[in-house]
Specification:
Number of strands: 10
Distance between the termini: 14 Å
CATH topology: TIM Barrel
Order of helices and strands: EHEHEHEHEHEHEHEEEH
Number of helices: 8
Strand content: 15-25%
CATH architecture: Alpha-Beta Barrel
Structural class: alpha/beta
Radius of gyration: 16 Å
CATH class: Alpha Beta
Oligomer: single chain
Helix content: 25-40%
Length: 238
């Protein structure tokens, strides 16, 4: 199991997740109410525990921009959120080797016909899983107005079917509209390797609510523990 609390904007935010035993925290460099700059993140990352994965979320596909932001911020993970670009993934893997935990986001468009959204997700997952060059695939909801942080859920049943058919042993992280009330059902339905939450644990955009973070993590860990013989249970981030 792997739990990431995303959309952090301050050391206070991150400390809440650390105290609640999150496995990873995320910082959004893309345009967002939660957007931060690499220079802001650097002093935060320097104070984080060594076993905590700290991830930069990028909408851009500009290789040089991503590399500069990672080197400035000192983060240990990359989440690509701006569409699938296998050449970019290959270049980043060559640049950083295994030092960066590399996540590719695939989107479920909640505004489209479900069958079309499923087809798009299936094609993307097949392409990424077939290359075996990322550490995880993150499934997130998108709308016509936003590619993340929408508070909308994906179709978990259809997503499960795609994951079962196409993911193989690829680590799958589920995001999109999760909160303490629905994360257990989402985990039992999709059976992901991990979950990712942002707006579902906030008091307002960019500010985490301690009680919501703790309750979410407890609910997620309880649900993961209840899944017996999970085929990905033994996998840990490399």
């Amino acid at each position: 199991m792997w739990i990431k609390i995303c959309g952090n904007t301050s050391l206070d935010d991150v400390s809440i997740s650390v105290d609640a035993a999150a496995d990873a925290v995320g910082f959004v460099f893309a345009a967002s109410p939660r957007q931060v700059r690499p220079e802001q993140v650097a002093p935060i990352a320097a104070q984080l525990p060594g076993d905590l994965t700290h991830v930069g979320v990028f909408q851009t596909r500009d290789f040089a921009e991503i590399v500069k932001a990672l080197r400035t911020s000192g983060l240990s993970g990359i989440q690509l959120h701006g569409g699938l670009d296998l050449t970019l993934i290959e270049n980043l893997r060559r640049e950083f080797g295994e030092r960066q935990f590399l996540i590719q986001t695939l989107h479920w468009s909640v505004d489209d016909d479900p069958a079309e959204s499923e087809r798009h997700l299936r094609d993307g997952m097949r392409a990424v899983a077939g290359q075996n060059i990322v550490d995880a695939i993150l499934l997130d909801a998108r709308t016509a107005a936003a590619a993340g942080g929408t508070g909308r859920t994906i179709d978990w049943s259809r997503a499960h079917d795609v994951v079962a058919a196409e993911a193989g042993k690829m680590r799958i992280v589920l995001a999109g509209g999760l909160n303490a009330q629905n994360v257990a059902l989402a985990i039992h339905t999709v059976k992901p390797w991990g979950v990712d939450v942002s707006s579902g644990v906030e008091r307002k955009p960019g500010q985490k609510e301690p009680a919501r973070v703790r309750t979410f993590i407890l609910a997620a860990r309880t649900a993961f523990a209840a899944i017996e013989n999970h085929p990905l249970a033994a996998l840990t981030p490399r």
